[in-house]
Amino acid sequence: MNSIQLSARQIAQKVRAGELSALEVLEDHLRQIQAVDGVPGSLQDLSLDPSEESKVHAFLEVSAQLAQKQAEQVQARVQRGEDPGPLAGVPVSIKDIFCVQGTTTTAASRILYNFRPPYTATTVERLQKAGALIIGKTNLDEFTYGSSSESSAFQPHPNNPWNTQRVTGGSSGGSAASVAAREVPLSLGTDTGGSIRQPAAFCGVVGLKPTYGRTSRYGLIAFGSSLDCPGPLARDVPDAALMLQVLAGTDPKDSTSALAPVPDYLAALQEGVRGLRIGLSRDYDHISYPDTLTGEMSVQAIQPEMNSAVRDVAEALARLGAEIVEDVPMPNARHGIPAYFVISRVEAASNLHRFDGVKYGYRTSAPVRGLSELYRATRAEGFGLQPKLRILMGMYVSAAQHSAQYYQKALRVRSMIRSDFEQAFDPRGAYRLDALLTPTTPTTAFRRSEVLGDSVLMQYSDQMTVAGNHAGIPAVSIPAGLDPLGLPIGVQFFGMDFREDLILRAAYAYEQATQNAKWRGVIPQALRGSEVSA
Amino acid sequence: MTPDSITPEMFAKLVTLAALELTPEESEYLRTELNHQLAAVKELSEIQLAEGVQPSLHGLDCQGSAPRPDMWLPFPNPAEILAQAPDSDGAYFRVPDFSRGEGES
């Protein structure tokens, strides 16, 4: 038996029972990485063998030694009769935006190409304490700034395991791809505007963005500090619930982490959906998209399979006893991207000022006349185009003369986006929802290079997800079928503050009800001909 | 708003304030994208706000950890931090002089 076929729950259960060795699990997954991943991303211009085109390229660094040490510790605990933890022996990949001692942490940027963090992010520490094996760091858009993972300074970028000519989505693209390609059962990602859910949808895996504050941001290289959320990517809903259980909870090192109690997410799954009120909204069956020259907005249809998948999921849940509430108004959803263009850029620009070639990372080797020149040359050489664009946009819209027009207005629009959800979830209101069901993305995975460079179109890839980040609420994306090209379709449940348990229940009920659906038996292209299909 | 709401002159000032330097090709791409993004956020100015809508710095008001007592907690191994420096003398980060006449940034 090859343990890459097992869920995280099965691996942990067998390792804890002494039926399977953590070292064997590690070996199986390292072998799978070897088989499907290809060369890791690099700053050098490599001339690649054509066979690399069909590889996944999820990883920037495989930390085999670190994982080996952890596997040995897990085995030692098993032998001593101690409990090695709820994720005992489970290989986990980490988006390379989290500081992990013993790894290089690059944020996929040249400016951090050699950064060896002297500490470990709280979320990663919790995974390690739970017995997980940190098997490597995954590629992403530079500093998480993108929705395709193509903007990494380290090329080749990740490819979609379902069709390697398509993007993984992003920015947690390497994470989603590593889970889909069975290189790991679990990955740790971050979601600022949709960066867990969108790649999860594109790669046919489960991605959960927790409530803001549910998971600690300590040790996460910041993008939009009021929006960033670490969270799990997994192949099924119970694995995502298990990983959230380990990650969730307050952290004295992050004052925005919440004190709210952490329920038993796995136990909650068993409660089913009978009586849950699941909303549908016509404001999520299309997108509004601006003309890039005039800013005139026009309504554009989304891929029809997205809306039919939402319908199918709603019908499946109704058969299980959920109440479907039609026509829930979310009138401010369409303002999500314009507000995000302002708020996230202001926060990004502020967070990027610390990268200056003085304390860590890249420093220019060009001769400089003084400190200011050192800063400018280092940042010019170290940052790629997308960080530069975000710095400039963030500085422009928060400048004293523009702030009222842009930043202050965007913060008020954010309140209105939040109030849509408050009304939908209000237990004394007209809708009294437990969850809102929408497509996760307007389309399935697009072709490589198709959108790269068009920063407006790329951002609109997040129109279905971003409102959840503005509002701070949790949301989970789950696979809900394949389109006619065989690409995964994702649907998403938004929930109330700290009610990850409710959206996971709805997601699990659908997953269980469709366990035997034909599309669930289809294997991603990158795995065909490998041990998985045998 | 016109597509050229950020002129080349304004753009050059912004680049200096951002402590960046750009090649002509980068400047052209970034200024074009910046103007496209500003066109995309034009919608914000047209949104009618209901009376009394307050700005939200965060989506939700949740109770976070209480502030820690203001105590000095030394990092266990400062040498590890200094080891990351592109240039240090073992106790301090080393940078070039802030020379006069270099201009402001």
Give structural notes.
The complex is a heterodimer of chains A (534) and B (105). By secondary structure, chain A is α/β, with parallel strands linked by helices. Chain A has a domain at 337-406. Chain A contains 16 helices and 13 strands. Chain A has an eleven-stranded mixed β-sheet. In chain A, helix 2 packs antiparallel against helix 3, helix 5 (173-180) runs parallel beside helix 6 (197-203) and helix 10 packs across helix 12. Chain A is globular, with a radius of gyration of 22 Å. Chain B has helices at 8-17, 24-40, 42-46, 78-82. The mean pLDDT of chain B is 87. Chain B contains four helices and no strands. Classes of the chains: A alpha/beta (534), B mainly alpha (105).
Can you tell me the residue ranges of chain A where pLDDT is under 50 for at least 5 consecutive residues?
none
Q: Using a beta-carbon cutoff below 8 angstroms, give the protein chain pair with the largest interface and the number of residues from each chain.
A: A-B, 86 and 63 residues
Which percent bin holds the helix content of chain B?
25-40%
Number of helices of chain B: 4
Q: How does the major sheet of chain B shape up? A: none
Structural classification of chain B: mainly alpha
CATH architecture of the domain at 8-46 in chain B: Orthogonal Bundle
Give a brief outline of the structure.
The complex is a heterodimer of chains A (534) and B (105). Chain A is α/β, with parallel strands linked by helices and 534 residues long.
What's the structural blueprint in terms of helices and strands?
The complex is a heterodimer of chains A (534) and B (105).
Chain A: H1 8-16, H2 22-36, E1 59-62, H3 64-79, E2 91-95, H4 122-129, E3 133-138, H5 173-180, E4 186-191, H6 197-203, E5 206-209, E6 229-234, H7 237-247, H8 265-269, E7 277-280, E8 286-290, E9 297-301, H9 304-319, E10 323-325, H10 336-352, H11 371-382, H12 385-398, H13 404-425, E11 435-439, H14 455-460, H15 466-471, E12 475-482, E13 488-494, H16 500-513
Parallel strand pairs in A: 2-3, 2-4, 7-10, 7-11
Antiparallel strand pairs in A: 1-3, 4-6, 5-6, 5-12, 8-9, 11-13, 12-13
Chain B: H1 8-17, H2 24-40, H3 42-46, H4 78-82
